[in-house]
Amino acid sequence: MTKNDEYFFDVDFFQRCKHHQMAPGDVFFLKKRKTDDRLIAVLSDGLGSGIKANVLATLTATMASNFIYNNYDIKKTAQLIMSTLPVCKVRKISYSTMSIVDIQSNGKVKIAEYDNPEFLLFKNDRPVNVKKEKEEINVNNEKKLFYFCEFNFEPGDRIIIYSDGVVQSGIGKPASPLGWGEDSAQEYIRSILQAAPNISSRELARQVVFKAVQNDDNIPRDDITCAVVYFRKPRRLLLISGPPFDKTKDSYIAEQIKNYPGKKIICGGTTANIIARELKREITVNLNNMDYSLPPPSTMEGVDLVTEGIMTLAKVAELLEKHVNFEVRGATTNPALEIIDLLLQSDIIQFIVGTRINEFHQNPNMPVELGIRRNVIKKIAKLLEEKYFKKTKIDFV
């Protein structure tokens, strides 16, 4: 994210494990240094699959991200890790690969790659070739190669990195005896960007992985991972929950909803009624496909989502903390998952939290973990910043 919030680095990834494996052999790490808004992304593919591969990839990704985070030169980082990685005695290859992406807030990018498929750079929907330096090091009397490049990231640009599970998907099939291949993967990504120029990093990575899984007849033969960095104008979201302490501020929160230049969520029946009254709008409860674990959502003109308040927000915090697979859905409509969808699609999230006490939430029989509204929202904001690299702001009224 740039200092003035004019542009934003949208970074996300998607992943599927090899069939019958519970732990991914690919590991994607993302670190953000708040002092200078620097982003460090690392994708590592451990040899084989399962727990052993995961441990090897985690070790590599941890070392790389920590070195870069602490201002160690990216070339020296790659050389050091390559020198220390063990080599498989049978296959004569290192136990893990790596792609290291170092992005400064001014858009300067440095990338080092070792044994992963080459990264892709797209300018809008057009793939661009990047000049790379070939670096050679000697490890135990054997030559190893890695590639390094640097360039300036511009608005509309995307960096796409993926593991060999993507390009080798479909291997052995008559249509792709050698696998999907880098050219076909690039063309597929280009077609997605032409059809959906503003697609989020999360959704683009998801579509690439789903296509690779499809190439394997929905039985992945390897771990499949894709990560995307997209430099664009930020997507904004406003979430309002709770009535203002001073009733004269009712019109203020209504105007915030009316004039906000982004997605809008209202959490809380009292809050929704205040805004509906002030803006003279109707609230309609959606009873279709109800998820009975939470009160149903509602609709209001000009608002993307209206839900119940504290119970739904507490569920949002719980799911964000667990970092569950949000793609897995049942047949019912879950308001907490709908909120999470909107949160994760956004970059800059503003919370307006009313501080008027709701007597119902002081009932000692209410579950302790629900807490009070302000603490739940503080927890959500912290999780969004630390786990999902969003920018948040909380205003109490």
From TrEMBL:
Asked whether the keyword Hydrolase is assigned, the reply is yes
Q: Which organism is it from?
A: Caldithrix abyssi DSM 13497
Q: Which domain of life is it from?
A: Bacteria
Name the gene.
spoIIE
Question: What residues does the PPM-type phosphatase domain cover?
Answer: 8-231
- Kindly provide the name given to this protein in its UniProt entry: Stage II sporulation protein E
The UniProt entry, under Pfam families, shows: SpoIIE
In its UniProt record, a GO molecular function of this protein is:
phosphatase activity
What are the coiled-coil residue ranges? none
> What InterPro entries would the database entry show?
Bact_Sigma-Reg, PPM-type-like_dom_sf, PPM-type_phosphatase-like_dom
Q: Which UniProt keywords apply?
A: Hydrolase
**Keyword S-adenosyl-L-methionine annotated:** no
